[in-house]
From TrEMBL:
It comes from Streptomyces ossamyceticus. GO terms for molecular function: ATP binding. The lineage of its organism: Bacteria, Bacillati, Actinomycetota, Actinomycetes, Kitasatosporales. This is ATP-binding protein. Residues 395-439 are annotated as: Disordered. It comes from the Bacteria. Keywords: ATP-binding, Nucleotide-binding.
Amino acid sequence: MSTIYELTVEAVEAGDVITYHPVRLANALGITDVNRLAIEVNTALSKALVTIYPHDPLAQVILGDPQMLVMDDRGRIYIGRYHNGRPSLLRLYDPASGSAQRLLLFGTTGAGKSTAGQIILAAMKRSGIAVIYGDLKGGQSAPEAYGQTGHGSDGNVAWRVTTQEGVMAQLRTTWLTMMDRQERYSRMGRSKFLKDRPDPLIYQIIDEANRLLEKGAPYRDEATFYIKDIGRTGRSLGVGIGLFAQAGHLEEMGGSDTLRAMLKEGEVILLRWTSSMMKQLVTDGLLPAGMVLSPIPKYAGEVDLVSQFDEEHDDDDLPGTQGTAYNVNGRYPSSKMRFWNIGSAMPTEGLDPMILDLYGPGAPAEIEEAAWDLIGDAYGQRLDGIEAYRAMFPEPEEDEDGEGGGGGGRKKKSGGGIRAASPVPASMPTESKPRSRTIRDRVQAVLDAHDDPLDALQILELVNADGDRPVKLGSVRNALTTLKG
Ligand SMILES: Nc1ncnc2c1ncn2[C@@H]1O[C@H](COP(=O)(O)OP(=O)(O)OP(=O)(O)O)[C@@H](O)[C@H]1O
Ligand SMILES: [Mg+2]
């Protein structure tokens, strides 16, 4: 039998609200597997729709063709579906206002954040969006989201890093790109971002963002500044931001109310949570007040008691619910959706060919050439780690007469002009040697070797003649500002 039953429930009196407990409701209806029930309520909580399925309707959510991931003309991507087969859509761009979005993907460990993330990243590649991706799990989260090695090269994202220093370099790069657009667009007399005319939509994505923003994290304050500013200013410049995190750990989300307020306006997707996480999300206002969401169990199917004397019992694993979520800003916020079930059934050695297929072949969209000079080498050479960090945050020189505050590179508030050097946190790992000399060292060497005054272009030429890796004018300028006493 495959009959589907649909019940409409209404509050008895005006002003009454419907509350429910899915397990109790299932019990009352004589249903042993709560996943066969879908319960949706309207925002006023005065009406509910209860659908009873013969089987878990979200057990198999298959993406027919990766081409379906391409963003539609209203700026939305198709990330999965609801119990009733309707598409679950995530907005990346609003063509009417020309704005990029802020994305938040929350869930406890193993809930499916990184896998959902791969669906989003693949959709971004297919939609011509330039993705700057940081994976703070050392590159384990989404190995198929490998980055380009340089301009025009093959890759599934434009730039991937796997360290906190790399993410900081990315944040500053994204921020500089945004500043460059602001200046260029205002010169063009343009008030709105128009996708691909001429610049691509850009997204800065950080997986395991909690590691960057949690208390005691080495770059917490600086990261908060950049994320906040990109979130605030990037919208209308075609620069979006996406954070994937275990929300419970974001307790003080960079310790900033502004950041929290900004994220509240974002597109929130909530995967399986823990009770402490839910409390946090509600207190932080990340979920609309009064929103009732029935919990997502860890396993699908009937969880029954088994006596130790029951010898017939087969110990089959229950299917998991990974990728099941609430798309809080979607069309049906109180209805469970499930992300596409992606990847090979069995883990593969190396990159999963089925996930690679999602991205499709070829080079991804990149940050526009107009910004390359300004943003410099960390992006140009797709650096990571301390090398990327040093390229973007050259250490300020201590004054010769000792007036440099005694702590060259100590923590101080960032956010100055475009080329101002930003702070190097006190906890910066100074022992770890960069693979090669920093650009600042090389510029210094050129200056030391020449008594005559040199302009930036001459310095650039001399630095590039020193046999080390090639650098851009922007990086030389960046280094010069920190070398001036
Ligand atoms: N949409 C999906 N399709 C297929 N498998 C999935 C999906 N989502 C999650 N999984 C499975 O669940 C496992 C855990 O998912 P994932 O690594 O994405 O979770 P996570 O929330 O990022 O966890 P962590 O906190 O450990 O980083 C994956 O290895 C995968 O096997
Ligand atoms: Mg993960």
